[in-house]
Amino acid sequence: MLESQNILVDNITLSSTSDDFQANPGNLGNTDGFDTINSNNITIQNSWANVGDDCVSFKPGSTNIHVKNLTCYNSAGIAIGSLGQYEGVRDVVENITAEDVSLYGSRNGAYIKTYVGKRTYWPPQGGGGGNGYVRNVVYSLGRI
């Protein structure tokens, strides 16, 4: 959800996988499930996702997001970020709740992705030099 406000996502099934992942496990094919960026007041509930990358990713500018009763298969988990990718840009993620999220076959649980302080190469593959903060995040995972 890009630059979205006041959105309810209810009872959605996602399937986003990459055939290349079997041949090259390091390449997830950028098969994220639910992403939020520069979005406010989003609820994702009663949904299911089979994805090769992040099941849910709260990207910069994600505020007041509530995820509940979500089941994720074969994912990278629940992510915040990536943050700090763009030099001189302040990234903010705050007021995030993820409850009753079940992860099956996940490579991670819940995690934060950031770039180092010094820029390395140029986005989208490289980046860094940005700043920001993450505040008021609550994860209550069901099953991992």
TrEMBL record:
Subcellular location(s) of the protein: Secreted
MF terms from GO for this chain are:
galacturan 1,4-alpha-galacturonidase activity; polygalacturonase activity
SMART domains under this entry? Answer: PbH1 (SM00710)
Q: Which UniProt keywords apply?
A: Carbohydrate metabolism, Cell wall biogenesis/degradation, Disulfide bond, Glycoprotein, Glycosidase, Hydrolase, Polysaccharide degradation, Repeat, Secreted, Signal
EC number(s)? 3.2.1.67
Enzyme class name: hydrolase
Q: Which GO terms describe its biological process?
A: cell wall organization; pectin catabolic process
Q: Which reaction does it catalyse?
A: [(1->4)-alpha-D-galacturonosyl](n) + H2O = alpha-D-galacturonate + [(1->4)-alpha-D-galacturonosyl](n-1)
Identify the GO cellular component terms for this protein. extracellular region
Superkingdom of source: Eukaryota
Query: Per its UniProt record, what Gene3D superfamilies does this chain match?
Result: Single-stranded right-handed beta-helix, Pectin lyase-like
Name of a matching Pfam family: Glyco_hydro_28
| Described purpose of this protein according to its UniProt entry | Specific in hydrolyzing the terminal glycosidic bond of polygalacturonic acid and oligogalacturonates.
Which protein family is named in the record? Belongs to the glycosyl hydrolase 28 family.
| Annotated protein name in UniProt | galacturonan 1,4-alpha-galacturonidase
Question: Which source organism?
Answer: Trichoderma semiorbis
Lineage of the source organism?
A: Eukaryota, Fungi, Dikarya, Ascomycota, Pezizomycotina
